[in-house]
Amino acid sequence: xxxxxxxxxxxxxxxxxxxxxxxxxxxxxxxxxxxxxxxxxxxxxxxxxxxxxxxxxxxxxxxxxxxxxxxxxxxxxxxxxxxxxxxxxxxxxxxxxxxxxxx
Length: 103
Known about the structure:
Radius of gyration: 21 Å
Number of helices: 4
Order of helices and strands: HHHH
Shape: flat
Distance between the termini: 50 Å
Number of strands: 0
Oligomer: single chain
């Protein structure tokens, strides 16, 4: 039986590693939460007829107008709202981090 190399042993420690969780810590906010918030907000706006969410395009499929998201003022406002949500998440993350350091 062949022995595992040092690299193989090191890589096995990362088999259950969640990159999104790692990046959340690095960026200072919960990426999954922000993404979910954005998706929910876009869905509400689409249901109200304010924006158009593009149909997914598969490999080899011809690009048509239905594969392009709308680009309206509402789309820009969604981006601003999500940005503000991320800033609030970062502030809360910093406050919690500072509390943990004092304890």
